[in-house]
Amino acid sequence: MSNTLEDKDWNLLLRRIKDGKCTPFIGAGACYGKIPLGNEISRDWASTHKYPLNDCSDLARVAQFLAVNEDPMSPKEKIKDIIKEHLDKLIFNISKNLMNLMECLPIFHCLYISPQITMIL
């Protein structure tokens, strides 16, 4: 199976966009380079907080370690701080690259999903 869309797939997608029957799902890659990736965050936390296991790139596991050893809200607060630190770049990236495109299309809403953020636009 190919990872690219064929002409018939593009035609179907474009028809559904035109008819307003398409909800784009925008993944974490939309913010690549604007906020750290989950594995970058987890390696940083693992190093800073002396995470004892070998899976230091697993954000869920490292976050669980912090929640148990510091405070249950600690991982959420740390993620919030990271997002706030990069918020200007994040908003600029999303608005510049995606919103401009979406304004040209009959898309009424989209769902942006990443491990760190979920927004309905």
Q: Mean pLDDT, as a whole number? A: 76
What is the percentage of strand-forming residues?
A: 5-15%
- Residue windows where pLDDT falls under 50 for at least 5 positions: 116-121
In terms of quaternary structure, the protein is single chain
Please count the beta strands (DSSP E, at least 2 residues each). 3
Largest sheet: 3 strands, mixed
Tell me the radius of gyration.
18 Å
Q: Per the principal axes of the C-alpha atoms, what is the gross shape?
A: elongated
Widest sheet: strand order?
Answer: 1-2-3
Give the structural class.
Answer: mainly alpha
Q: Between the first and last Cα atoms, what is the distance in angstroms?
A: 32 Å
Order of helices and strands: HEHHHEE
Task: Kindly give the count of domains.
Answer: 1
Short description:
The chain has 121 residues and is mostly helical. The chain contains four helices and three strands; from the N terminus they run H-E-H-H-H-E-E.
Keywords:
single chain; 121 residues; mainly alpha; three-stranded mixed beta sheet; elongated; disordered C terminus
